From TrEMBL:
CDD domains: QOR2
Pfam families: ADH_N (PF08240), ADH_zinc_N (PF00107)
Record-linked SMART domains: PKS_ER
Keywords: NADP, Oxidoreductase
An example Gene Ontology molecular-function term: quinone reductase (NADPH) activity
Domain of life per record: Bacteria
Coiled coil: none
Domain Enoyl reductase (ER) span(s) in chain numbering: 11-321
Signal sequence region: none
Listed name of the protein: Quinone oxidoreductase
Keyword Ribosomal protein annotated: no
Gene Ontology, cellular component aspect: cytosol
Length: 323
């Protein structure tokens, strides 16, 4: 019998339940996939708490990798036995197997394991669109990256170095600073005890940075805006501390700033663009230019503890459920 993590009400980690589920045969345009590893992402907590609404009861998770066991009518780009990964599909990745639409699947090259794929598909594609689609960054530019020791942060910093960028990263502890530095972060700011904008100005000779990548949200948005140079861009791509209040007048006060709140789904909606970004990501990882650190592994039935660890800031790098 297949199993899945489901929740019947929104709330804290304790609402997550390990349940038996029935998985049928795939219909037209669908596949049945047996998961080998499942990605654990902070965005999963947004669905669990109700910040992102979902009809209840619901499954959880949007990222996993595994092996296709059956294909439905009309599926052509993947076949039975293929190793695949995905992110951004309908909720339900926290499961041992599932039936799902085939269109969102990405075939894995032989050099990349299912565990590595589950640890990097969402984070890696996020890093890809942030660095390759959001702003015309050029070699020599300096950027500010919040949560530099997180799953996105470690991939982002390595990729940024390949592009010739200087990365100023914020972290919450000495241990996380060491991890961030080891993955290419050039300068560290301890955002809980230092004035982020003041340190950024010191490190940039008073100029500020052209782009800030902020996944924290409410707690950091003021410092992020104050760190930008005139007509700089604030990229709010996450809300770990809550949705930031944005006063349009403050954009003018801080130098005619721009702000965007992008979502990965809009940068991989077109198969050609998704495959292009995935190709760049897989190429860097397969060659060793970017390494993927899986620092936490959990059994899927331990999802409650995994969510507690993640929300308490006890995790670094990527986390996965191993089946």
């Amino acid at each position: 019998m297949a199993h899945a993590i489901r929740f019947h009400e929104t709330g804290g980690p304790d609402v997550l339940r390990w349940e038996e589920v029935t998985v049928g045969d795939p219909g037209p345009g669908e596949v049945r996939i047996r998961h080998v590893a499942v990605g654990l992402n902070f965005a999963d907590t947004y669905f669990r708490t109700g910040l992102y609404p979902a009809p209840l009861p619901a499954g959880l998770g949007v990222e996993a990798s595994g092996v296709i066991e059956a294909v439905g009518e009309g599926v052509q780009h993947v076949a039975e036995g293929d190793r695949v990964t995905y992110t951004g599909s309908p909720l339900g990745a926290y499961s041992t197997e599932r039936v799902m639409p085939a269109d969102s699947l990405i075939k894995l090259p032989e050099e990349i394991s299912c565990e590595t794929a589950a640890a990097m598909t969402m984070r890696g594609l996020t890093s890809a669109y942030l660095l390759r689609r959001i702003h015309p960054l050029k070699s020599g530019d300096t950027v500010l990256l919040h949560a530099a020791a997180g799953g996105v942060g470690l991939i982002f910093s390595q990729w940024a170095k390949l592009l010739g960028l200087t990365v100023i990263g914020t972290v919450s502890s000495k241990e996380k600073a060491e991890v961030a530095r080891a993955h290419g972060c050039d300068h560290i700011i301890y955002y809980r005890r230092e004035d982020v904008a003041e340190r950024v100005r010191e490190l940039t000779g008073g100029k500020g940075v052209p782009v800030v990548f902020d996944s924290i949200g409410k707690d950091t948005v003021a410092g992020s805006m104050a760190s930008l140079q005139r007509r700089g861009l604030l990229v709010c791509f996450g809300t770990a501390s809550g949705v930031p209040p944005l006063d349009a007048m403050q954009l003018a006060v801080h130098g005619s700033l721009f702000v965007t709140r992008p979502a990965l789904a809009d940068y991989i909606a077109e198969p050609a663009e998704r495959d292009s970004l995935a190709g760049e990501l897989f190429g860097h990882v397969a060659s060793g230019r970017i390494t993927i650190e899986i620092n936490q592994r959990y059994a899927l039935q331990d999802a409650v503890q995994a969510h507690r660890d993640m929300e308490a800031g006890r995790t670094t790098g990527s986390s996965v459920f191993v089946l």
